[in-house]
Design a protein that fits this description.
The protein is α+β, with helices and mostly antiparallel strands. The protein is 45% helix and 12% strand. It is built from twelve helices and nine strands. The strands form three sheets. A five-stranded antiparallel beta sheet has the order 1-2-3-5-4, with helices on both faces. A hairpin with a 5-residue loop joins strand 7 and strand 8. Helix 7 runs antiparallel to helix 8. The protein is globular. The structure holds adenosine-5'-diphosphate, 2-acetamido-2-deoxy-1-O-phosphono-alpha-D-glucopyranose (GN1) and magnesium ion (MG). The site of 2-acetamido-2-deoxy-1-O-phosphono-alpha-D-glucopyranose has 11 residues, from loops.
């Protein structure tokens, strides 16, 4: 989906409902693929993030989840997003001054910090008062369901794109058997359902120079598996190149970054069970495959879900994901050994 253009009136109206009328500039911000995000500058100097949330979410569930999660974290003294106002489909957060997010890791210490931040986030939500959060999108990380949606998208075959993705479909078909592993373990109760973030890509944690952090993009915080959170960290935080790098020779999973992630995550996530620890390395491969399947699906559907900047953007992203999967497969034994080392096995 290419970025929708908003009129000044539309943005002013959105802000006015939250009592913000002294804006001097409202411009597109960040590199998120889902919501329409704007940075708001005002005469008083206070800055805000204005977002129009995607229509793909159950918006009322989302609003309730965001308010519950941020209030809970605040009550525990955990720094989190500050909600200024929320009227679907719009919301305003205070701008997190002094924090920055990156799209790619440039030093292992960032990976370790990010992993620690997501572990602390899961820890802080372990005692979220009942009831459980509701899903904003059902079966979000269910790879089996994502395969079903891919098969549906093949029938859509937007602009005859199927002809371009023969190799990618073969790549997926060779891995269909792995798809059910985590969902099945969850269904059987072999892996616990926890309140997890579900979108732990590196630009969803903001870091400060003093080592402080704030986990953001809380939209998919809902019942899930710690394995999905760890897997998605591996997908983005161990990557040697951008998610949309066209030169695939630059795309691989960096062992030093993976090791830093394991170190940071295991130091913070003391709650993990044996079964979870045993599947950490696998989860990186599975989530990366799953996100690649989602990019491929969106490509075949005609780019209806993820923001795209050019015609085959989703296909380029799918290819980097599959290259990352291959790289993790090649290093599987070493990655398992790293997990064992930090788990003290
Ligand atoms: P999406 O769901 O589309 O990824 P995000 O909520 O992650 O949307 O926001 C997109 C980007 O905007 C983030 O990666 C981050 O760089 C920036 N951002 C979001 N919230 C804030 C905030 N409160 N303060 C500063 N920057 C923010
Ligand atoms: C989206 O919202 P953002 O850009 O942080 C997506 C994730 C994908 C990711 C791929 C709600 O994350 O699931 O892994 O793109 N978020 C949603 O980069 O679908
Ligand atoms: Mg985001």
């Amino acid at each position: 989906m290419s970025n929708r253009i908003y009129s000044k009136e539309e943005l002013d109206q959105a802000l006015a409902q939250f009592g913000i009328t002294d804006q001097t500039d409202v411009s597109r911000y960040g590199s998120g693929h889902i919501n329409d995000t704007f940075k708001v500058e005002t005469k008083s100097g206070t800055r805000y993030i204005l977002q129009r949330v995607t229509d793909a979410f159950d918006k009322e569930v989302l609003k309730s989840n965001i308010l519950r999660v941020t209030n809970h974290l605040k009550s525990k003294g955990v720094k989190t997003l500050e909600v200024v106002g929320y009227e679907n489909p719009w919301r305003v957060y205070k701008f997190l001054e002094g924090y920055t997010s990156v799209d790619q890791i440039s030093d292992p210490s960032q990976a370790e910090l990010a992993a620690g931040a997501f572990a602390a986030f899961q820890n802080a939500l372990a005692d979220l008062p009942a009831p459980e959060l509701l899903p904003v999108i059902k079966k979000f990380h269910d790879t089996v369901d994502r395969l079903r949606l891919l098969d549906e998208a093949k029938k859509v075959n937007y602009n005859n794109r199927l002809a371009l993705v023969e190799k990618e479909l073969q790549f997926v078909d060779a891995r269909r058997e792995e798809a059910a592993k985590i969902v099945t373990m969850m269904e059987k109760g072999e892996i616990p359902v926890r309140t997890t973030h579900n979108d732990t890509k590196i630009n969803n944690v903001m870091l400060a120079p003093d080592g402080g952090n704030v986990v953001i993009d809380l939209d998919t915080t809902m019942p899930g598996s710690a394995l999905y959170d760890f897997g998605d960290m591996v997908r983005t935080s161990s990557a040697a190149a951008a998610e949309d790098e066209k030169d695939l020779s630059k795309v691989y999973s960096k062992k030093e970054y993976f090791e830093a992630l394991v170190k940071g995550y295991l130091a913070g996530a003391k709650f993990l069970t044996e079964n979870e620890i045993a599947n950490l390395a696998f989860s990186g491969r599975l989530i990366t495959l799953t996100i690649g399947i989602r990019f491929l699906t969106d490509f075949l559907n005609g780019d209806t879900y993820f923001h795209t900047a050019y015609d085959d953007h989703n296909l380029v992203r799918c290819r980097t994901q599959f290259k990352m999967v291959e790289s993790m497969e090649e290093q599987a034994e070493e990655y398992e050994a790293i997990v064992k080392k930090y788990a003290g096995k």
